[in-house]
Amino acid sequence: VSFLLLLSTGATKDMGKMLGGEEEKDPDAQKKEEERQEALRQQEEERKAKYARMEAERENIRQGIRDKYGIKKKEEKEAEAAAAMEQASEGSLTRPKKAVPTGCGDEEEEESIVDTVMKFIPAPLMDMFNKK
Hints:
By secondary structure, the protein is mainly alpha-helical. The chain has a domain of 62 residues. It has five helices and no strands.
């Protein structure tokens, strides 16, 4: 019987809230909310610290593998490439020139290409080219 009485008392309070009645104000509600927020912040900090430790351990393992096999980190490769570019352009007032791909801009190569094509032209057509 006391169980039903407790159930009906809680149900009437909830019904009152649902019907637009006023909620009972908990005097410690703000204090509880602040404690809850602080607990969430603390959990978040602990989680971040945990993952930072895990990442540090992973990085140590990665570095051991790099040392064992002589592999360089991406940042080190990029730094070396930048240093090489700076060293190559030292003393120059302009930016470094880009390498010209083969087959582009060389007149000697173009002549050799024409000669190569001429080898495959039949003799009667070759005579026509030579008459000009």
